[in-house]
Structures are given as structure tokens and as C-alpha cells.
Amino acid sequence: MIISVRRGLRFIRFIIFFAALVYLFYHVLDLFNGWISPVDQYQMPTGNAVKVFQETDWSGIGEARPTMAERLRLFYWYGE
């Protein structure tokens, strides 16, 4: 079996070129991901937006804490 040095070098050059392109493509997609994703997705909403679910201590004096079904009914009643 004859091993050609020129053919081997061409294959190594192809592998290096392919790895460089994959590396470049990865970093371009990473930049795009950083540009499109929100800075802090868990921040408090602004404007007319409200958080749908926020677990807090019930401070209703003399009132029973609403059940999850009642809270869900109110959520759909007000319109999501």
C-alpha cells in the first residue's frame, strides 16, 4: 500500500479548515444567541404586564386563602 504525503497533507489541511469553519460558525451562533435572548428573563414585568404566579404569604385578615382552582378560575375570568 502506497501512502501519498501530498494526499495526507491535503486531508490534514481539509480537517483544519473544517474545524476552523465549525469554530467560526459556533461563535457566530453564540453572538446571535446573546443578541436575541433577554437579559434577565425573571425580572419584574413593566407597564401593564403582571406576573401570573407569585407565591406570597396570604395577608387576608379573616378570609380563607383561595384555593388553586379559585385562583385559576379568576385567572381565566380576567382573561389571560
Task: Please outline what is shown here.
The chain has 80 residues and is an all-alpha fold. The protein has helices spanning 5-36, 68-78. The chain is built from 2 helices and no strands.
Explain how this protein is built.
InterPro entries: DUF4227 (IPR025321). Keywords: Membrane, Transmembrane, Transmembrane helix. Pfam families: DUF4227 (PF14004). The chain crosses the membrane at residues 12-29. The chain is mainly alpha-helical and 80 residues long. The protein has a domain at 1-37. 54% of the residues lie in helices and 0% in strands. The radius of gyration is 29 Å and the shape is rod-shaped.
CA-based shape? rod-shaped
Largest sheet report: none
Secondary-structure class: mainly alpha
Uncertain segments:
none
Supply the number of helical segments.
Answer: 2
Count of β-strands: 0
Q: What is the radius of gyration?
A: 29 Å
β-sheet strand percentage: under 5%
Give the terminus-to-terminus CA distance: 72 Å
Give the rounded overall mean pLDDT. Answer: 81
| Order of secondary-structure elements | HH
